[in-house]
Predict the structure.
Amino acid sequence: MSKTFRGYQITKDDEGQKVALTTLSESDLMEGDVTVQVEYSTVNYKDGLALTGKAPVVRRFPLTPGIDFAGTVTGSDNADFKIGDKVVLNGWGVGEVHSGGFAEIARVKGDWLVPLPDGISTRQAMAVGTAGYTSMLCVLALQNHGLNPETDTILVTGAAGGVGSVAVLLLSNLGYKVVAVTGRMNEADFLHGLGASEIIDRQQFSEKAKPLGRELWAGAVDVAGGNTLANVISQMKYGGAVAACGLADSLALPGSVAPFILRGVTLYGIDSVMAPMAKRMKAWQHLVSDLDFNKLDTLCTEIPLEDIPTAAENIMAGKVRGRTIVKVR
């Protein structure tokens, strides 16, 4: 008899996309050599797009959404994993073309899994989630660029959201002066609590960017794109660097080449979905050592599986502060 479990399934017909929490069976699992009992997942911006249908994130139907998860291996035909191993998964098209973390069981390729580092639980791994893992990739890019925590100021856009809040927490914990940009100025106390030294209204970044603005920032983490990113680039100091990882405002980049050719500014594109395993392992090891998990817990909200659709609507409406953890089982 096939084992059954709870999970979401997205289907699509002539009337459009439908999302339902339903009973699934092992026949609904997709190809893979490792089966995982999912303990925790998260609701990320991309999950919001997938569940609301506001962007064509899901490209195969039917499909279980959820771009990341953490849990325990319950079956393995992969030599690198055995039953009982704790694992975390981010990206690789999971929740887009391969069923993901919004179900009690997932089957995936072992090549996509990262062994959970010592000193971190599955819940903490999803408090980090894809958002926090992406933040760490951004921070590593800025560190590799040579930015100095004793002298350099880093700007973080979308600072009250998932990626931005963890970026503020990481950078401040590493000693950088962090300036946070947000459209929710009522979250100023929250952002100061994470370590931001100054809060700026994102409205200041919403207009068309000048070719060159005042030199203000040595580095930046941007989750927005569009005019926000163009303004950030125009305000970079000579030799500065921007790590761009999102498109919450726009896919466009309506700026000038002037900062690149007159100030030697570097724009790093941060991809968390297909990042090679060595980079993933490095990011997770740095998260364990560089992140204040007690503070991280203060920016997390835990919800049950049933509340995922509401959380998806809220994240698309810009109403979510920090990280949303899903207790799957």
DSSP finds nine helices and 15 strands in the chain. The chain has a mean pLDDT of 96. The domain at 4-116+299-327 is CATH 3.90.180.10 (Quinone Oxidoreductase; Chain A, domain 1).
